[in-house]
Write a structure and sequence with these properties.
Distance between the termini of chain A: 43 Å
Oligomer: heterodimer
Largest sheet of chain A: 9 strands, mixed
Number of strands of chain A: 12
Radius of gyration of chain B: 25 Å
Distance between the termini of chain B: 35 Å
Strand order of the largest sheet of chain B: 1-2
Shape of chain B: globular
Shape of chain A: globular
Number of helices of chain A: 14
Helix content of chain B: 40-55%
Number of domains of chain A: 1
Structural class of chain B: mainly alpha
Order of helices and strands of chain A: HHEEHEEHEHHHEEHHHHEHEEEEHH
Largest interface: A-B, 79 and 79 residues
Number of strands of chain B: 10
Number of helices of chain B: 25
């Protein structure tokens, strides 16, 4: 499908690319380039200047965020296997037969060269660890500034707002910082640096999320399966006069902000459809890697793999993807429920890893996990755990230098790393330090990191060196 | 105090004007607008009835109506392998272990039942005090939960809070059922799930609010938190000791098997009897019964000054506009706070009879993108469509709103979701509107207005399919401008922009004159796809 004629013919305003209904031009701090360079030939000059602040490198790179909604219990993602470490873990977590949460040592997947084991359902990732392409970031979380337990307890230093609240902590993870007066997400702000692209540089297969929207760019939500085209205008909308009427209508300014926003969503969809529908609906060679996995996360990652496979046709050389898996809010029945969820996560991550390797871009794709927060080490009534803080996360891909990053908290209730009595870890690595390491690999220059992670400067010291 | 006394005469004038408008007869356009807020959308019949009444009288009549219910769903064994043993019909699980039948009935009720205000408020409450069919699969269970909102919609918020808290569905959903006191020997604590979310989502929210809904800020400009982790733990302990009711004939004990037929029951032995510190400096003394602690805890929540603005603003967003003015929120808060506190009829009157509900103070930021459920039902009601609910429930789900079954307790979309491109404004329903669902909507509208309707699903007993008969519109196609005017009247309450009127007329003319139904469909499809239609404003 060609871009609708009304969009193709729309004149660029003062040399700038298409702005939403003309209105956004009046408020440049809020404007978003929903439609890309392909929509307006006159925008090339502008693009050239925007690229000055863009992303480094000319190769293809993709970053994939796998968000584990609900607050994944990192204490059972990775477990000490040495006798002293396991004993402390088991004492605090309690016997599973009595409503506790301790995993049995025999079920763990050992991480060679360490005193740690992965949850058994994540065993498919062990081979990636053995290849040296899986990093484990220990005790990372939201922070407003470097913080000690004493300062936390004394209220002597700023805490992240609304600790232990799902939606607030999700938002802070996705924004890339705590207490930011920014509605945008950090992937969106990375895309802002690059400026307009043929289709949005940030794509979600998991619906809307704070993560995907920048200040001047809007992320794109695509279906995890099925067509990505408008319906009701026949097989070739561009040859249907009704479609011409409709697209002209979409371009008509309206004084109401929600009407304008609704129009912009459809315009963005139509603009991206021509390039993305073929990518999403054409069978790619990667499907076989996901055989037998019918869960939503596997479908989403399969859609991402299809878009990566079509990278040449799409022509966007830096892409950030967002996928998610929900259900991690395991207040009860955690052992069973996390086992089922990891039973989806482990195979899906492994399949995706293999799929992108088969596309020849293994070292150009990095995948990482994020989540609301960790969960209490101490079990709650009902065989579950409650909302906590610092958590452990995965970073994997062909460019990753595998290994452990950060330090495991001392698994002691009320111990030096616990800000409460139930095992809520004070993070030793900030969300933005993890994010900055990923963004730097992605191509964000040192001078631009502060615009993506405004609070990064508060955390001295090198960011984790996941990429050697 | 000074500013209050200065504002008082203005408020009094506003109130007088509102009272006048509330009692006045409505024009057709006014009636259609009003019914968009107070019902699942106007029909010619409800418009006529509203015009023969007044806003206030229409509400008074609606307060007496109770036509909708979710009766007739029977208990099923919590284990689907026992409820649908091998050899059961292929539809056994769908009809007994998914809320499909309940969702279907919701749409049937919304389309046709006259207690529109009750249903509309119940839907709004179900999106604020969320339990989900995603986790509670049995239709009889979720039916009992949703019946709370139908029954309590016009009672008192304290009653809603109590019925939700004691519902075994909520008990299961947020783990108050079988929440035993902490056990030092086993190293367990009271479960914090309900104790936290009842505060954060169902009543007071995270930050201290002014009556107009704005956040209170400290000397550094930071929002003042409503509660601390210690307070959450206080409520978590206050809510210990409750379990499912026993099955008929069974002896009750703590840890009863899952049963959703009646409210939860308490066991003192599993209740934490130590004192608890709660909101607003309230302390529950040691040694109280589970019931006494529960009532004391709910009183402390209900009496917190945040409840009026926190719940009131969300009800305004659900029924009227995404971005109510602070003054509008303050007026609804005042209605909530007046004695007897929490009176739902008074709150609903304050929301729907407010001047801002009929005459926006700031038209450019007024209104809301309709949530998918309302978007679909409204079209069918306006155009005289019929549906057994099956297709509607599936389309709503594809659009991001599987009714009564959101992914999490945070509803389909959060009330503070930022409006795209205008992050200073809110656009809650944009949380489920994006490129992907925009295309789904195009398909749903095309099918709804398509020539064949949607056939009955043969696997659903009593199914009749979905269909909008456009036959009566054919007579209008000879006059495209007249057709556009009729669409303007029925779908836009007369507020269609001139640009859209000409587009709609041109759409009709883009189809062959010999195919009048195709002309009607083209005109209606373009009108229903227009952003100015999708957004109620």
């Amino acid at each position: 499908m060609k871009p609708p004629s009304s969009l193709r013919s729309r004149p660029a305003q003062g040399g700038a690319p298409y702005l939403r209904n003309g209105r956004a031009a009046l408020t440049s701090n809020r404007r978003r380039f929903l439609l890309g360079a392909a929509a307006a030939a006159g925008s090339l000059g502008f693009l050239g200047s925007a690229r000055a602040a863009g992303l480094a490198g000319s190769d293809y790179r993709a970053l994939v965020c796998v968000f584990l909604y609900g607050g994944n219990d990192g204490n059972n993602l990775v477990v000490p296997t040495d006798s002293a470490g396991y004993a402390a873990y088991a004492a605090a977590r309690g016997n599973a037969a009595a409503g506790g949460l301790a995993l049995q040592p025999s079920t763990l997947a050992p991480l060679a060269g360490t005193n740690l084991g992965l949850h058994g359902a994540l065993a498919p990732l062990a081979s990636i660890w053995n290849q040296g392409q899986l990093a484990l970031q220990l005790n990372v979380g939201t922070l407003a500034q470097p913080l000690t337990k004493a300062a936390y307890l004394a209220g002597a230093a700023a805490r992240p707002p609304n600790l232990f609240s799902h939606i607030d902590q999700q938002t802070q993870w996705q924004q890339g910082g705590s207490g930011l007066a920014l509605p945008s997400g950090w992937a969106g702000r990375v895309a802002d640096l690059e400026g307009p692209t043929a289709i949005p540089a940030v794509i979600s297969a998991a619906g809307n999320a704070v993560f995907i929207n920048g200040a001047t760019t809007a992320g794109l939500a695509v279906p995890a399966h099925g067509a990505f085209t408008i319906k009701g205008f026949g097989p070739t909308p561009s040859s249907n006069p009704l479609y011409g009427l409709y697209t002209r209508l979409l371009g008509t300014p309206d004084p109401n902000v929600e009407v304008t926003a609704a129009a912009a969503v459809m315009q963005q969809a139509l603009q991206a459809s021509a390039l993305l529908d073929p990518a999403l609906t054409t069978a790619s060679g990667t499907a076989g890697y996901f055989a037998g996995q019918n869960n939503s996360l596997a479908q989403q990652l399969q859609a991402v793999a299809k878009v990566i496979a079509a990278r040449s046709a799409i022509g966007v050389k830096r892409q950030i993807f967002f996928v998610s898996l929900g259900g991690f809010d395991t207040h009860t029945d955690q052992l069973h429920r996390q086992d089922l969820l990891f039973g989806q996560l482990g195979p899906a991550l492994k399949s995706f890893h293999d799929a992108v390797e088969s596309l020849g871009v293994g070292p150009q794709v990095t995948t990482y996990t994020a989540s609301d927060f960790a969960r209490t080490l101490q079990p709650a009534s009902g065989g579950g755990s409650d909302h906590a803080w610092g958590n452990h996360h995965l970073v994997l891909g062909g460019a990753v230098r595998g290994g452990l990053y950060g330090t495991l908290p001392q698994l002691a209730l009320g111990g030096p790393d616990d800000v409460t009595r139930e095992g809520r870890w004070l993070p030793t690595t900030a969300v933005e330090q993890m994010g900055a390491a990923l963004a730097t690999w992605f191509g964000v220059g040192a001078a631009d990191l502060a615009s993506v992670f405004p609070n990064l400067g508060r955390f001295p010291g090198p960011n984790p060196a996941y990429f050697g | 105090m000074k500013s209050r006394s200065r504002r008082w005469p203005i408020l009094a004038l506003c109130a007088l004007a509102a009272a006048g408008a509330a009692q006045a007869a409505m024009t057709e356009s006014e009636a259609r607008r009003f019914l968009d807020e107070a019902s699942f959308g106007p029909t010619d019949a409800t418009v006529a009835a509203a015009m023969a009444s007044s806003r206030a009288d229409w509400l008074a009549q609606q307060f007496t109506r109770a036509d909708s219910d979710y009766a007739g769903y029977t208990y099923v064994n919590p284990n689907p392998k026992l409820g649908c043993p091998a050899g059961s019909a292929p539809t056994c699980r769908r009809d007994n272990y998914s809320i499909f039948p309940l969702q279907r009935q919701f749409f049937e009720n919304a389309l046709g039942n006259p207690d529109q205000l009750r249903q509309r408020v119940a839907l709004a409450l179900s999106e604020i005090l969320v339990a989900s069919g995603r986790q509670i699969h049995q239709p009889y269970a979720m039916a009992n939960y949703e019946r709370i909102f139908l029954a309590d919609a016009f009672t008192n918020f304290r009653r809603i809070l109590r019925d939700v808290t004691l519902s075994p569905v909520m008990g299961d959903y947020l783990n108050m059922a079988n929440n035993a006191k902490g056990n030092p020997a086993r190293g367990t604590t009271a479960n914090e799930n309900y104790g936290r979310e009842v505060l954060q989502l169902f009543s007071v929210g995270l930050v201290m609010l002014n009556p107009d809904g704005s956040a209170q800020r400290d000397s550094q400009g930071l929002p003042v938190p409503t509660y601390s982790q210690d307070i959450v733990e206080g409520y978590s302990r206050a809510f210990t000791g409750w379990t499912y009711p026993p099955r008929p004939g069974a002896t009750a004990h703590f840890g009863d098997p899952v049963d959703f037929e009646s409210p939860m029951i308490a066991f003192a032995a599993q209740h934490d009897e130590a004192a608890k510190t709660l909101l607003g400096g309230v302390t529950l003394p040691a040694g109280q019964t589970p019931a006494a602690d529960l009532e004391g805890a709910l009183d402390s929540i209900f009496n917190h000054p945040n409840v009026g603005p926190f719940i009131g603003r969300q009800l305004i967003q659900q029924l009227v506009t995404s971005n109510p003015s602070p003054a509008y929120v303050a007026r609804v808060t005042a209605a909530f706070d007046a004695a007897p506190r929490g009176d739902m009829k008074r709150v609903i009157r304050a929301i729907l009879l407010d001047p801002e509900a009929s005459a926006p103070a700031a038209p450019s930021t007024y209104g809301k993108l309709r949530e998918p459920v309302v978007q679909l039902v409204r079209l069918f009601r306006a155009l005289g469509g019929r549906s057994d609910g099956v297709w509607l429930l599936r389309q709503a789900a594809a659009l991001g709103e599987p009714v009564f079954s959101p992914a999490t307790v945070f509803n389909f979309y959060p009330p503070d979701y930022a409006l795209p491109d205008d992050p200073g404004l809110l656009g809650p329903t944009f949380g489920v509107y994006n490129a992907s669902t925009a295309f789904v909507l195009s398909g749903a509208l095309a099918m709804a207005l398509g020539p064949n309707g949607i056939a009955a699903d043969p696997t659903v007993a009593g199914a009749s399919g979905s269909r909008i008969d456009l036959g009566p519109w054919q007579g209008l196609v000879a006059d495209p401008a007249g057709l556009a005017a009729q669409i303007n009247r029925v779908l836009f309450a007369g507020a269609m922009s001139p640009a859209l009127q000409s587009t709609v007329a041109a759409a009709a003319q883009s189809q062959p004159a010999a195919k009048p139904l195709a002309r009607v469909r083209a005109a209606l499809f373009v009108a229903a796809m227009a952003p100015e239609y999708l957004v109620e404003h």
